[in-house]
Design goal:
Radius of gyration of chain B: 25 Å
Distance between the termini of chain B: 51 Å
Strand content of chain B: 15-25%
Order of helices and strands of chain A: HHHHHEEHHHHH
Strand order of the largest sheet of chain B: 5-6-7-3-8-9
CATH superfamily of one domain in chain B: P-loop containing nucleotide triphosphate hydrolases
Largest interface: A-B, 54 and 69 residues
Structural class of chain B: alpha/beta
Largest sheet of chain B: 6 strands, mixed
CATH class of one domain in chain B: Alpha Beta
Number of helices of chain B: 24
Oligomer: heterodimer
CATH topology of one domain in chain B: Rossmann fold
Shape of chain A: flat
Strand content of chain A: under 5%
Chain lengths: ~280, ~575
């Protein structure tokens, strides 16, 4: 059964990296992507992330459904940007080169197209990074390395538990959805959108209740085995940072610094090809 | 068994009342357990046996507050003072739900969980984990995730997780509830082996008495309504009528000997059928058999569902189902059994249309149902999930039961009529305006069945309808299902682990193993077939051993005679109570 974005054990250079270095990489990567609108940097990032995605051997079936959903929202986002701010690009780049007049106050410009193209490739720097991070990071190893850098273990362990239960909850969701569909609650694309949203409640509530039950059992089981009693704990799966980890961290810090310098060198976040 | 003088566990006049409740849940408990003993605590749901267990591991009063009186000493200490963590070093608790107890991502980490919390250095921890894994034969699985383990292996991990910190007492809370019969049997053997090897005291809370008694138990403590009503050696307990009186099911061979009119004496050691001396009862059993064995006529058969040559796989590597063919006739009650992961749920999901088979045909009423969507099939084939919480999504009973009709656009007036009718059939009509949350588990189960029944399906498929229920609730749910069948003529397919259920209530049994249909036969034929039982992880019924010991040539027909007799008795009790 294919499960959406959850950790899968494999032996790749990316899998071998410590959870901590992947987390640092991930955070700095996303921050860089959020700050910069420099098309050159964004394109380099897309190129890099595609290569890493290949190295990590992420399977398409693990991520396809989520990818589809994100693409759907991306299209909505791009369309909305155009309708709410058709001349945002002109404002940013300070010029206006019309392509075609559409209707009313809406004219398509090169600047707007270029601006939305930047937004578009931003998606493609971050989404594969999320997929790579979630599918290659062993949650318990991540929890132990977070704890190692000073995050309280109750918090890092909660994160681990959350990641660990993603597949279980997905299975439960599927089972409940099937049973409710058999009762006649339409979830396939045949039904009307409003009905489908309403019908989702018939899955969400049972899922919530059965998840609550599970939480109850797990928290009792954890307490019975001494979780939370002492201030510290040790970790069975803790790994020391390897040279590859230091290289990764140094690389991403340098990359982040460089991208910020290039981005803000000319006083604003945008790369302007129009002047 | 040599007993030291000082008890390891000592309850003196203990009473306990939960904060939210009016009456105490435990009343005047006096119980002494000595080191090295194996104690079985039995009782119906609500008898207080879980509360008693929670006092031993200090979940009471540390996690569930309330008023406690009297004194409790475990290893000379007071659990309430040591707290849950302190007690976890003395009492290892193995929970009923092995999935829930599996906290970490891999076997190794889970075994280490308690050690991690105790700040044991990593090297020492790895050594200790390896040691525990060796003792439980888990060394090959240290890197595996819970999903990759069988039910029995999960049980071993739960056990290992608490054994890792050198406990003195092992406490099992219904360890057999989610296991197939053969795995349950192995678990009991494992517990026995571990306690002897490591010199432990064991307390098992379980209502499936016959399965626990597979290995020697020192005492059975019987609880009812918050009190200990009996505390005896198993041989004596089995001879008394205490078990039946307090709603615990006796081992089948005991019921059969009693049904034959014999009075069992403790000197014949009734604890295990294998070693029991049955000579005093032999003649009575034989004459009982000769009186009751008769051939009943098989009723007329109308083909309803026909499955032929079904094949299914999630990926190319492994076929989940292969070459499955069988027929189901109108009005039948059929059990679908087999070990965990044999493909039972997958088969049900193919029939319901949740998954599509790679090969094969499913015909309902002579029509191929392949083109029908899940929703369209749902009008003919209803599916009831294991836990009512997985199905109920509306706060009010009427709305919940009517959900399927409303979503199909049935006019409101008709919905109300059909819902009322379904509620009447299910005995829920008086509660029709109640919120679902006010109902008991059994009543919620009824609501789920009513919400399927309201669509007038031809077949209802029930996934583990009685899992985790004690004998009383089991009987209540199953009698209800049988009544529904008798009233409406609906065909029932049940996925189950419960050999009793299969024996007590079904007309036919389909045995699945490793994706193949191993046997399609009457329950008594399945339960007396040693080869099928061992391949499918079922447990051959003790009635078989009994009949062999009595020199009855055809054990299957003896088992059938006993089953028929019990069914007659049950329906008589039912009709008396209805009157």
């Amino acid at each position: 059964m294919s499960r959406l974005i959850s950790y899968e054990k494999k032996d790749t250079p990316i899998h071998r990296l410590s959870g901590l270095s992947k987390l640092i990489f991930f955070i700095l990567w996303c921050t860089a992507s959020a700050f910069t609108f420099d098309t050159r940097i964004l394109l380099i990032m897309v190129f890099m992330v595609v290569i890493i995605y290949r190295i990590a051997r992420v399977k398409w079936r693990q991520v396809s459904a989520v990818f589809g959903a994100v693409m759907f929202f991306m299209v909505i986002n791009l369309v909305c940007i155009f309708f709410f701010a058709p001349y945002q690009g002109c404002e940013i780049y300070g010029t206006r080169s019309d392509i075609i007049h559409l209707f009313g106050n809406y004219t398509l410009t090169y600047e707007q197209l270029f601006y939305e193209f930047n937004v578009f490739i931003k998606y493609f720097t971050v989404i594969p990074a999320i997929f790579i991070f979630l599918t290659t990071t062993n949650p318990s190893e991540l929890a132990s390395s977070l704890n190692g850098v000073g995050v309280p273990y109750t918090i890092s362990y909660s994160l681990e538990i959350a990641l660990r239960y993603i597949p279980d909850i997905q299975d439960e969701f599927r089972r409940i959805k099937n049973a409710q569909q058999a009762r006649g609650i339409e979830m396939s694309s045949k039904g009307r959108l409003t009905n489908r949203i309403k019908n989702t409640a018939t899955i969400i509530f049972p899922l919530l209740f059965s998840t609550m039950e599970r939480i109850d059992v797990v928290s009792n089981a954890m307490e019975l085995r001494g979780f939370g009693k002492k201030k510290k704990r040790t970790w069975y799966s803790k790994r020391e940072l390897a040279p590859a980890d230091y290289c990764t961290i140094i690389f991403i810090v340098l990359f982040f610094a460089a991208s910020m310098v290039i981005t803000f060198a000319d006083g604003n976040r945008f790369y302007n090809p129009f002047v | 068994m040599e007993k030291e003088n000082r008890p390891i566990i000592e309850f003196t006049d203990v009473s306990f009342k939960y904060r939210a409740q009016k009456d105490p849940t435990l009343k005047d408990i006096n119980l002494r357990i000595y080191p090295g003993e194996k104690i079985l605590i039995a009782g119906q749901s609500g008898s207080g046996k879980s509360t008693l267990a929670h006092m031993l591991n200090a979940l009471i009063p540390c996690s569930f507050g309330g008023d406690m009186s009297g004194t409790l000493r475990v290893c000379g200490q007071e659990p309430a003072k040591l707290g849950v963590f302190g007690m976890s070093q003395i009492v290892g608790t193995v929970l009923q739900d092995t999935d829930g107890q599996f906290i970490a991502l891999t076997v190794g980490e889970d075994l280490a969980f308690a050690l991690e919390n105790d700040e044991m250095p990593q090297d020492e921890m790895k050594k200790r984990v390896l040691d525990v894994a060796k003792r439980l034969e888990l060394t090959d699985f240290l890197e595996n995730a819970p999903g990759e383990l069988s039910g029995g292996q999960k049980q071993r991990v739960s056990l290992g997780g608490v054994m890792a910190c050198d406990v003195k007492i092992l406490l099992f809370d219904e360890p057999l509830a989610n296991l197939d019969p053969a795995t349950g049997k192995n678990t009991i053997a494992l517990i026995d082996e571990i306690m002897k090897k490591d010199d432990l005291t064991v307390i098992i809370i379980e209502h499936r008495l016959e399965d626990v008694l597979y290995r020697d138990v020192d005492r059975i403590v019987l609880m009812d309504d918050g009190r200990i009503v009996s505390d005896m050696a198993p041989d004596e307990m089995l001879c008394s009528d205490m078990l039946v009186k307090y709603g615990i099911r006796e081992p089948l061979y005991i019921s059969a000997i009693k049904a034959a009119g014999a009075v069992i004496g403790p000197q014949t050691h009734p604890q295990h059928i294998e070693t029991m001396d049955i000579t005093p009862y032999r003649d009575k059993i034989r004459s009982f058999y000769e009186d009751t064995a008769e051939n009943s006529l098989s009723p007329e058969k109308n083909l309803l569902l026909s499955v032929s040559d079904l094949e299914f796989a999630y990926d190319e590597k492994r076929k989940i189902l292969n070459n499955i063919s069988f027929n189901i006739y109108r009005g039948e009650m059929v059990a679908l059994v087999g070990k965990n992961g044999a493909g039972k749920s997958t088969l049900a999901s193919l029939i319901c249309g949740f998954n599509k088979p790679q090969k094969g045909v499913i015909m309902l009423n002579g029509e191929n149902i392949e083109p029908l969507s899940i929703k369209e099939r749902g009008e003919k084939i209803g599916y009831v999930m294991q836990s009512p919480n997985q199905m109920i999504s509306k706060p009010m009973i009427m709305d919940e039961v009517g959900l399927g009709l409303i979503s199909r656009g049935v006019p409101e007036e008709e919905v109300r009529e059909r819902v009322s009718e379904a509620l009447r059939v299910c005995g829920l009509y008086p509660f029709r305006n109640w919120p679902v949350s006010a109902l008991s588990f059994g009543q919620k189960k009824r609501v789920c069945i009513a919400s399927i029944l309201v669509m007038n399906p031809d077949i209802i498929i029930l996934d583990e309808p009685t899992a985790g229920q004690d004998y009383g609730h089991y009987t209540e749910i199953m009698e209800f299902i049988k009544e529904i069948r008798d009233k409406t003529g609906v065909t029932i397919i049940m996925i189950t682990h419960d050999m009793y259920l299969m024996m007590d209530y079904t007309d036919r049994t389909l045995v699945l193993t490793d994706g193949e249909l191993l046997l399609d036969a009457k329950p008594y034929q399945v339960l007396t077939n040693s080869e099928v039982c061992s391949r499918a992880y079922l447990k051959r019924t003790s009635l078989y051993d009994l009949s062999v010991k009595c020199g009855i040539e055809d054990p299957a027909s003896f088992v059938k005679a006993f089953i028929d007799e019990e069914r007659k008795k049950r329906s008589k009790i039912k009709s008396d109570s209805d009157r």
